[in-house]
Amino acid sequence: MKILVFSDTHLTDKFEENKFNLLKKIISASDRVIINGDFWDGQLTTFDKFISSGWNKLFPLLRSKKTIYLYGNHDLKSFSDSRTSLFSVIQTDIYSLKLNEKTLVFQHGNKLLPLIDEKLPRWLTKYTTLVAGFLLVNLPPLRYLLKTAGQKMKDKVKKIYKNGEIVVCGHSHWVDFDLNNQYINTGYIENGVAKYLLIRNNRLLAQEENYL
């Protein structure tokens, strides 16, 4: 059994062929899929536009893998409707999976580290999202903010989760694989870089590849 876990693809109504091909490849190679939030970006598009876009060519494939879809802060439950069933069989905020002696607890991460964008009107978050994305891509030193965010999430996990539980999240866009501290962050799939997790033969395998 091979389970693919990814998050933070931030898909919009704009189709990207290279990204599509990457997603199709890694989804096709898996038996099950867990989308851990921010699959599409409700701060940059609407759900109607997203599901009518070229990305809907992934939907039958995702359904065939019995995909579990967790909501994130850019794809809040209130941003979508029952048509999430076009690409997933379960829609939730938290999902648990037994692995050997451990329990993997999947959540996007915005409950661990809430951001102000969830309190702002959507017309405004469109611009804050675009500006933040531009700065992080073009000013690499600012990426330390992502590491700081990830550390805050990890610290929160250590305080609220029991021994034997490992939290698997995204949100911060900062990969971290720290089983000693019960924390995995799978990263993101954006800007030509794909970082994700495979669970294969009861092993947790961090993956990274480029797609441009």
Automatic annotation (TrEMBL):
This is Calcineurin-like phosphoesterase domain-containing protein. Pfam families: Metallophos. One of its GO terms (molecular function) is hydrolase activity. It comes from Candidatus Roizmanbacteria bacterium RIFCSPHIGHO2_01_FULL_39_12c. Residues 1-174 form the Calcineurin-like phosphoesterase domain. SUPFAM superfamilies: Metallo-dependent phosphatases. Gene3D superfamilies: 3.60.21.10. InterPro entries: Calcineurin-like_PHP, Metallo-depent_PP-like.
